């Protein structure tokens, strides 16, 4: 007998999220061939990993439960969303059994830990895995979580990046930056600007967010004699709810949601600046554009090692309220 829970209402889905530490939801339709291709794999995983009050596998027919699908911005069929403590932790879009298996392999490790009394899934409740696996350059503001995992990595775009440095994904790596580690070899896990100091980073989100704090880590080498040593960001502009990245001229001219100027005193010993945002202006956010206008010094390049978003996810609201989020104007 299948252990998978078939969702028949938004309230039932909310009950499942509240009643299980880990939830794997299969958003599907009966008419989708892609859904049918991975249905058997999903059922096998459900049978092997389901645990009462710990791990629950659910199926959500998006044609019958449109409110649930809309609340979690499901646009691709099938989509598999993994929830940890009621928050979106990961998602797999499309009939990709290899990716699904990879995500579930991580899940199985958590299942074993939970079943053996290893504590809460997700450690501190940040939605990004255990505290040991997640490096942070600054403490979390009281009452808020690290929600960087809500960034849709595949759709991120970084303009004016030096191809010899890392790519955009390294900015959201959960590991400690190599510049702070004893062994500094291997791939470059930071980004640098290319032709001048400016960078334009576009970050779309998997769900509606409330942003409270932006944490930036920049760890340029301390070689004062080298004119090519990159700089830390100085002036920064933020733009919200843009459907795509901006151009540099456009970013220069547009009025920003918030802009600020960092000084040497803003960077802590971990190379991280903890930047409070005007919370009232960062409600119901679907995307963020970060524009590094210039660097703090006379060089021609700026460097970023990590970007962290701190705040709340829309999934913390009740389903009925989530349905209205898209109709509320952003600040």
From TrEMBL:
Biased composition (Gly residues): 116-128
InterPro entries in the cross-refs: Galactose-bd-like_sf (IPR008979), PITH_dom (IPR010400), PITH_dom_sf (IPR037047), Thioredoxin-like_sf (IPR036249), Thioredoxin_domain (IPR013766)
One Gene Ontology term, aspect cellular component: cytoplasm
Descriptive protein name: PITH domain-containing protein
Xref: CDD domains: TRX_family
SUPFAM superfamilies: Galactose-binding domain-like, Thioredoxin-like
Keywords tagged on the record: Disulfide bond
Family matches, as Gene3D superfamilies: Glutaredoxin (3.40.30.10), PITH domain (2.60.120.470)
Classification of source organism: Eukaryota, Fungi, Dikarya, Ascomycota, Pezizomycotina
Chain residue ranges for the region called Disordered: 114-134
Record keyword Disulfide bond present: yes
Residue ranges of every copy of the Thioredoxin domain listed in the record: 1-109
Family from the record: Belongs to the thioredoxin family.
Limits of the PITH domain: 136-329
